[in-house]
Amino acid sequence: MLKENHFLKGSHLLQGLVLMLVLVSASCQRYATAWVPGPVQIHGAHTFFLIAGEGLEKDRQIIYQTLSKQLSDSYFFSVTDGTLSGVYLDFHENGVWVRNEKNALSRSEMYLQIDIVDWRIKTEAMDPVLKQGPRYVGIVGLTVTLINRDGDIVLDEKPYIAQAVAADTSEVETVRARAAVLAVAQFVNDIRPTPRQTKVFWDESDKSLKKILAMAQTGELKKASRLLRQRWHENYKNQAVIYNFAVIRDLIGDPQEALFLLDSLPPNYAMQDIIGYKETLKDRLDDKKQKE
Question: How far apart are CA 50 and CA 53, in angstroms?
C-alpha cells in the first residue's frame, strides 16, 4: 500500500512536470510596441466622448475641429462627438455625476469636456525704438475635464493657455484659431503615449489566437485588445486568452486590468514568472498613483 501511494504521488508529480513543460514550450518570447503613458494617466483609454462645454458655438467648433484632427493624427486616439447628446457633467463636493448618460462607456472610453475661458485679441502698440508694430496677439485659454467610466475625475478643469501673433491686419481673423491649435496641442501632448519596444512572452498554446497575437505584434493593440476582450467574454476560463489579454492591456497602458486578469489564472499556470510579473504591475500602479 505504501509503495502504491508513492507511485501515485510520483505519477501526479510527473503529470505536473509534463504540464509545466507543455506550457513553457508553448510560450514564445517576442518584442512588441508598448504605449508608455504620457504625463496625464488615462489607463489605456483611447476614445473620447466629447461633451458640450462653455463658450460661443462658433469658437467651440474651431476647438472641436482642431481637437478631432490632432487626435486622429496621433494614431492612438479617436473622438466621438456627443455635444448634441444632452449628456453633461454635474459636479458636487465629492466628485461628479454624468447626467443623461444613455450608454455606459467601455474601459477604453472617457468623457471629455473642453471649456473656453479666454478667446480674445490683444493689440500691442508700435515699438518706438524698433519701429515695429503694432502687433495683434491672439490669446486662447481652455480648461479640460476628463472623466473615466467609473466617474473618477482624471483631469479637473486643467488650464491650457496659448498665444499666436499676427504680423499685420490681414492675419487678425485667423490669429485666435492659430492660438487654439497650440492650446489643444498642449492637452494632446499631455495624454499622448510614447511607443517603446519591449520584450513580451505570448502563450501560443491556443492556435486560434495566432492572428490576434500577430496584430498585437505589429502594433495593432487597440484591435487586438478588442478581439481578445470578446474572446474572454465568450470563454472566461481560457487561460491562454486571459494571459495574452493581460499582456496586451499592459502594453496599451492599463496595468490595473492586466493585474486583475492575471489574478484570475490558477496557481499552477506556468507560462513565465507570473508572481514577478504581477509585482512589476503593482509597482507600476503605485508609480501612477504617486504621479496622480
Answer: 9
